[in-house]
Amino acid sequence: MNVVVIGPRGKMGRLIAQEANERADMHLVAGIGPKGRPYIGKDLGQVAKLGEDIGAPVLDELQAVISDCDVIIDFSTKEMSLEVLDTAVAYRKAVVCGTTGFTEEEMASFKKAAEVIPVLYAANTSKLVNVMVKLLELATTAIGNETDIEILEMHDRWKTDAPSGTSKELGEAIAAQLGSQLKDVAVYGREGSGSRQAGTIGYHSLRAGDIPSSHTVFFGGLGERLEITHHSYNWECFAKGACDCAAYLTGKKPGFYTIKDVLAI
């Protein structure tokens, strides 16, 4: 399939370009960067540090190359992602989006777009993280009503949204098993005095250095606790997952897809 990568200079965009370039089932058509960047007009191989020119340009106008692609992979900023989504709908092209930090109203635009094009949204494209979600659902079913549930997530200093999109997905999975919605039971940080409110899900976000990604969910009982944790050591697992998501959309009808569809879990 022919692929356009959004933000090929970013930490995820660069790795996605590298992964796609190495796959036999993918061909890189172009990269799209923000206007005014000094690398606009250069070869994608140079911009994404692939070690060679690959004959694909980096441009600042998606419309210039969108007709040549089958799918757009976008891990950029929410402002840029919303623009990409509008363009994809206009040209009827599939989109994989891993950008986080969207409001409920902004996420609704992805659901609306899915009426016209295949849209796969995944806040985290790691296979192991999504196995973690299944473990959390099992644990919540067994002990969720008799333990205190807290989520600790850590990321690098450049992470702009808090809590992370992944930790929200973890919380949503837990809340669903409890028969609630995350927005009704989440507590973000604590200060002052007062005992913990039963039935809530506590959130704590750390930002420091170059920590790639770490999520731990605590099920605190009396005299014991269960911890379910995922650590990523680099971003390559997310890049591979993003390309797997793109490959999954081959031949798919318009609709809203998730990483669970890709992994069949």
Automatic annotation (TrEMBL):
PROSITE patterns: DAPB (PS01298). It comes from the Bacteria. Its EC number is 1.17.1.8. The active site is at 155 (proton donor/acceptor), 159 (proton donor). One of its GO terms (molecular function) is oxidoreductase activity, acting on CH or CH2 groups, NAD or NADP as acceptor. It holds the Pfam family DapB_C. Residues 1-124 form the Dihydrodipicolinate reductase N-terminal domain. (S)-2,3,4,5-tetrahydrodipicolinate binds at residues 165-166. It is an enzyme of class 1 (oxidoreductase). Catalyzes the conversion of 4-hydroxy-tetrahydrodipicolinate (HTPA) to tetrahydrodipicolinate. NCBIfam families: dapB. Homotetramer. This is 4-hydroxy-tetrahydrodipicolinate reductase. It comes from Vagococcus acidifermentans.
